[in-house]
Each structure stands twice: as structure tokens, then as C-alpha cells.
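Kindly review this record before class:
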Amino acid sequence: MGKQATEMLKGVLEGIVLAMLSSRPAYGYEITGWLRDQGFTDIAEGTIYALLVRIEQRHLVDVEKVPSEKGPPRKVYSLNAQGQEYLNEFWRTWSFLTERLEQLREGKK
């Protein structure tokens, strides 16, 4: 992924992770793996863990510690009502931006 794509991704990564969590709970490594499967291969695990800390502190997710066969319990994140509201706003903003960008690309005012 090029520098421009990486910078753009930073701006929407939170929304992407929240969208993923809206369909099912997941833990950090699982989220990173899913993102890589989707082609976001340059995302470092540390980036995802820092993002998870932020969305947890902002009360956008619920966290459950689940025992792990290998090592300490895993923190499993699931989207809560406040997170769903935030995600809905993200999608509204995304729709607005993509419509305007498409108009610019097509040369419309």
C-alpha cells in the first residue's frame, strides 16, 4: 500500500474496525488478521491495539475477558449502543464525502 493510501486509511480505520465489530465480537489479533485478509497488509498490530484502547476509553465497545488456551485471557470487543450510534454517524459522513468526491471526479458542481 502506498503512502497516500496509508494516510487515507488512518482516517477511516476506526470506522472500519467498528463496522467489523458490528457484525460480531472479536479480539485484537483476530481484527488484525481480518484486516490483512481484506488487503490491508501494512497495518501493524500495534496500530490496532492502540485503536482498541481508544475506542474502549470512549465507551464505544464492551470488553469481555475470555480465557485463552495460550497465555493470559483475551479481551473480546463488541460494539455497544453508543458505538453503534458512532458507527451510524461514520456511515452518514462517509456517504456525504463519497458523494462529493464522486461529483468532483466527474467534474460536477
